[in-house]
Protein 1
Amino acid sequence: MKEEMINLIIDNEHVQVPKGTTVLQAAKQAGIDIPTLCYLKEINEVGECRMCIVEIEGRRGFATSCVQKVEEGMVVHTNTPNVLEARRVVLDLIISNHKIDCLKCIRSGNCELQALARKFNIQDVEFPGEIIEHEIDDLSPSIVRDFDKCILCRRCVATCKNVQGIGALACVNRGFESCISTAGNNSLNDVNCTFCGQCIQNCPTGALHEKETIQEVWEKLKDPESYVVVQTAPAVRVALGEEFGMEIGTNVTGKMVTALKRLGFDKIFDTNTGADFTIMEEAHEFIERFKENENLPMITSCSPGWIRFIEMNYPDLLPHLSTCKSPHQMFGALIKSYFAKKEGIDPSKIYVVSVMPCIAKKFERQRPEMKVNSIPDVDNVITTRELARMIKQANIDFVKLEDSSFDNPMGEATGAGAIFGVTGGVMEAALRTAQDVLTGKDLENIHFEQVRGTEGIKKATITIDGKEIKVVAASGLANARTILEEIQSGKADYQFVEIMACPGGCIMGGGQPIKSSKIREEVDVKKLRGNALYTIDEKSQIRKSHENPILKTIYAEFLDQPGSYRAHKLLHTTYQRREKYRI
């Protein structure tokens, strides 16, 4: 059926768009920019902030373009003196109730409110009024909530509810008393928050941000008694450059390693190697379960936001989780055992820092299950953004840095480890190893295109050695809920399930560089970062985890084999039922 088209005029431009299009989207198609603040395409289209108002001929007052649908013959004006003045008043009123401490704000220079204030030349507040001060919520290990910087755009509310299916945040009270809060106005630490950080990614100001811990890293780097080791996740290297003005998806592995050396870390290792260990343990765990038809489907366990979600919402399905620790936790345990013994270093003197795209890993590393002999696997987790701040604080010109390589003896990784950072990558990497183990052959087909792509749910049937394996990869917790409901109801017949808390996987983690709503609408950030990881895989000399020579050495010298007693002690973990609300 042919789509009905609507003709209208926007700022003297004749525009034709499909019926149902909003004025905002029609203007965008015509190359006409309308400012927005609360708007998030397909997530938060509520017309709350009123920054996108326009004039429509024949109508009184202003129309909110993000919700106003186009009509045949409509004539729209987006930049009349009346519109510009009204937007300025709206912006002034928003700022008048905002904590203005831009020099100290973590989002200074990357704040959508600040950018609009500059665009509209707001230099002073014309309508100052009473400001209610709120207590900062910094009790969680991952997220800080500062309501004094909130502009009530409701992006966080919509993201938590519509994208992640959690609903930890809501707008409460009315009028001047309105605020974004949690159940019972409790800390995010004590409600059903999974610490995924997607609310941070969509917040236009500094009202939500990660709990920064770089000062502790600086102190350890200065401490002569500490041996400070850093490891970097696969998704970090394809996003870090964005913090220094480089194109989205640029692979900056070599520059990142050089920067870490200049910061003073004693050793720089690659978490991709930890991912290879995860694949070895996870693939063999799956094969054992598959052969015994026990606790299927097996569900991946490397995303801590996802783990917190299932512990709170579907504790009866915990036996389906792989017992494998996430890659950085595995690697931390090996650094403080195998590496420490090999180098003759007291494990208690080793301080492991993980640079992650994820803020939930700040929570994960504090879990009591993530210790071996009372020694934590990882001592500190900083995000991609925090690493960028450290590099800037050290006055390092990142773009001009030469490339360096990760340190030995634990610096070599495979292409399989690299694709861990994108949705479907964990499953594809595991299947590469599983098929070789099940067939006893070195198979050339290592691409599992069925589980690639940025879709929220990807289902496929893989045939290995004549046996069908039904798999599904889901990213985003709302999609995870869909899959778990299928499993719980008995409607699903999967054998292997990969779930990532963040839509698109780790490349879109809560700790990654924050892009404005306009950039994310214009550019497919997920695709660019994901393609960069697949390119790393394609260019890798070794693309199967079980062929990594470092792994072969460590298993031979230390771990014996996947699933051994020592491997379980160091590399595997347990889970627990959690209450949604501790109030």
Protein 2
Amino acid sequence: MGQAKLAQALSTVGSVVSKMEKGEDVEPELAERYLRAVGSDLAAKVMEFYGRDWRHSPPPSFLHPDREVLWQVDDALTDLAAFEKSPKNHPILKGPIDLLRAELAGNANYLRRRDHTIAWVGDIGVGKTTALAHAVGLLVGDGRSQRKPAFPVGSGRTTVCETAIRVASTYGIAVDAIDDNEVLRLTRDLVTSLTAKASGVGVPSEISRVLRNMSGTKVQTIQVGDDEYESVDPITQMLDGGLSVDEAVDRVVASMNLASRKEQQLVLPEGRADGLNWLSKLAHNINNGLDERFGVPRRITVLMPYENLSADGQILSVIDTRGVEAVTQRQDLDAHRDDPRTLVVLCSKFADAPSPTTQKYLQDMVESGSDAGERRRACVLVLPRGDEALELPGLDEPLRSRAEGYAIRKRDVAQAFAKAKLPATPVYFFDAHKDDPDKIWASLRGQVADIRHAYAERIMAASDGVKDLIRNVNIVKTSEARRNIEIAANRLGKAIRDLPGTRRPAHLNLLDQVANGHHSSIAAAMARGGEWYNFPVFHMLGVGVRMDANLRTSDHLSRVEHKLEELTEEYRALKDVRQSLVALRALVAEGRQEFLAAAQSIGRDAYGNLLSREQDLWAGCEARYGGGSGYKQDIAKALQSYFEETTAPAQTAAAVDKRLQKAWEQFVIAPFVAATRAEAPVLAAA
């Protein structure tokens, strides 16, 4: 139907119809007139959907991928509310009703949002930024063969910070900069590293590049003879000229003119044809400290139109994390792992997939008790280059296609995971120069859909539970069953209330990370009293507490799981009781995740407070840098001696134990026992 005919049917003009079609919203009456004029089956479905009586939440968009599941929630909650007011209701059903309501509402809250994050993680130099630029279409140039990533890329240590990509109607860039005090601190580290008596602690090369460009102190190469060149460092010249470290720092920082570098966001007007080129130049300048409007970036957010980030009803943002330097236990990486809305993409080179970093990340995930694996919130992305996929070693016959090479490498990855007792993890392949980006995005969106589907399944099960409760309620049998469950839960709750003793002291995790870490990152952490983004000591101790908490509670959780399975089998004939036990199992699992997250926070807080006062420890470790071979071993010995031979750490460990016990009771024991109480209210709607 043409626009003119539609306008005639609506008794208006074409310009009004055009404006309405381009708008985000439209008045309901006008929308209904428009849809009736169109008269298609789809138009009828849209009218039917918006004509429903939503009683417990505003209706989602018709474009929402889970709109029918959310309608099922609203319908089930309506039925549940009506049943509560009916004569069939009984006080014994208060517990299961609240369980079902919480299960419906909690999972609906997750599904109602359509936003998800795809976090790309990999070693420095693995090629993830290049692959991401090709995958998202952030390419600039005249022809396809000449196009290059709009992001700054190189062989490693090129991007200065985490970069996020978000879908938008036009191109733009937003910058979260580090504060001036941190700039001052980094500048001092840079200057100090250039002194004659420097211990060797400096700043990463990408940070040094930004600071030097911002201050006009870039190292210059000058010709001193026919074939001779030498480097001239303005900062070294300041020091050689008699300036103290403090004076040189003041001069360098003053040259940056930080007061004028406060810009946070720039957006290009819609319709500009040179959006990618504008974005590429701006991102390059910000990443290198060449744009006088911006400071040292902590995070760069790129805004751009891209259909693959908004297809299938999903709203995706992509994060290119800072490259991993030996240690995977970083706050940003752990935050992505534990975020229920984030899919972590672990990038590996083709030749060594799955890379040691990928395996270490998955191992940390298992040891910390994260549910990311079973929730399918992680995958492996192998990045072939050139003809790697066709040149696998050890084969008797040449491969017929890259796809065959992918299949063989995928099998190798699965076998490596099985051998290391790591969770089976989806594996995808993407050659930035040869593979279709649409295919990898279809795979990633499909896994996000799988993550969401698990919540939809829980909603459908809870909805069935509501129907079973209403249709098949047998107060006599139900009452007896729920009282027996209450007795069993109380008995079990008492048996598992107390946490067993420490299984693995938190500092052992820190010692493991020292063994794995890069010496320069460890030195930077020692110089900063334990806090450096590539080697965060307090965070590692928090992770150590979480790993220990996971070990200490595993037997308790096995007992709960066994008892719930036993009760499910015993009352398999009572559908409403059986569904309550399903919801109870989910409640315990989520409570445990909250407990483990609390354990990590408790550990970081307690040991952070302890170590922030240990200036002698940090000074001794800092002084050791530059003292010859065996640096990491000596640092490990110093830390081990401190934790195992002094009294303060033991006192902190005892205090952590008390806080863990309270968290265990708060997040697991109390909700478990309360949810099984036969006649008392147990849970509010999520």
Protein 3
Amino acid sequence: MLATKRKNLLLSMSLVVALSASIIGCSTQNPEATPSEAAENAKAGSQEKTITMSWPRDVGPMNPHLYNPSQLFAQSMIYEPLVTYKDGKIEPHLAEDWTISPDGKEYTFKIRSNVKFSDGSAFTAASAKKNLDAVMKNMKLHTWLGVINVLEKTEVVDDSTFKMTLKEPYYSTLYDLAVVRPVRFLAEAGFPDDGDTSKGVKSPIGTGPWVLSEYKKDEYAAFTPNPNYWGDKPKIDKVIVKVVPDAETRVLAFEKGDLDLIFGEGVISFDAYKQLEQSGKYVTKLSEPVGTRNLVLNTMNERLTDLRVRQALHLSFNKKAMVEGVTMGLEEKADNILPKNLPYSNIDVNSVEYNVEKAKALLEEAGWKLPAGKTVREKDGKTLELELIYDKADLTQKAMAETLQAEWSAIGVQLKITGVELTVYIQRRKANEFDMNFYSNFGAPYDPHSFMTAVVQKGYGVSDTLVALPMKAEIDQKVNEGMKTTDEKKRTELFKSVLTTLQEQSSIIPISYIKKIAVYQKDVSTFHFPSNRDEHPFYGIETK
């Protein structure tokens, strides 16, 4: 059994990449400290190492079991998982070890000793069960996460042993437990009296390296190190998150020296990044790919049912030139539907190279002729007209859509590009009312299992578009088998076959690899991009 109700979250997440972006700056002393902070600093007679971060919106109520308006990066500062995703693998975190039964249904976790919440209370197997039970009490809010749909019961074996029993095997259980929400842990004192966290929490008390020390809604939030943290202690004294909705304002603040680090996805324009890079005044970095920007072709459209037409479209635009031109080199041409650095996704595929003449020949072979004096191909009295919908607020999608429109006109294809509001975009995808659209996968730790779910389950804007493929039933069978098998080698082969087939069918066309950016002043050091796309960037960060 796969997750059956991930639709709204998966669709909105794949469309709103900027929710994982942030802007950060640091200084040895906060120039805009609140009066209480300034007095405390003066009394201490010392300088704080403070990082000031801007975010487009308020950090939210910091409920570990709920979603918007709480912001992912901030939640990950306070709350921690049983296991964590790092460099393509699942590693121990609050659980220092675990075992999985041979049938893949029982997960037994050994809780790390001496872990405390920020209020000093102990994190135990009972803490894990209380939080999982609170999540399951409101299961309908979380069915997008596959493990929630197959979780049968939780048990406290003893203070340091926590057990989960599933209804059926589900290979991505550990990956689901590594996501930022909702399976993270709140202290007993933070729970409401009735235990129902869907109504809110009393206080955001977690086991993470940071605590929320000061907060003013829609203005700022201040985080300081958790004095009881079990792991490596933060090397800075404070993180201040200011609400700054405008991207240009962030860039100006950075150039003035008020901010020392810009980090994230979609947080500033490609042009602004290049200008900062070319100035030579700052350090600039790009992460490994965190996702792929794909073009989905709906095979249920009779014009796109023919493989030759889809292949012609793939061949007839200069992908490399388009990506470099639109993203100014900050993204790179993609040959794979999923980045190769994700689990089970490191497959070699035949690169599709730009070839207009071959594209024209394929259309001719498919019966789409170009009548004398006309610019659009025809077949059986119909013209080769298609519509590409995109999120009108996404300037990258808009620029790419305009490029495709121009390129495809050269082979006799008329492309109508339609920018719509995000809500309309989601509705049309769910209803399968489009010829083409843009789709980005979620990255780590969600993929490849979230993508595979979208391939087989209706309503995500992917499975429905593949129905006309002659091997769709076989694809679905391989995905379902891969999600359940406990044989790692077999799963690798099954997922490789699925990804290879989809690419050969040109039903999902990879365009570019999305990357996070970092631009920072030279007094920031030890900066690392987090492996988990949604995590905060403060692990080990230092200032000189």
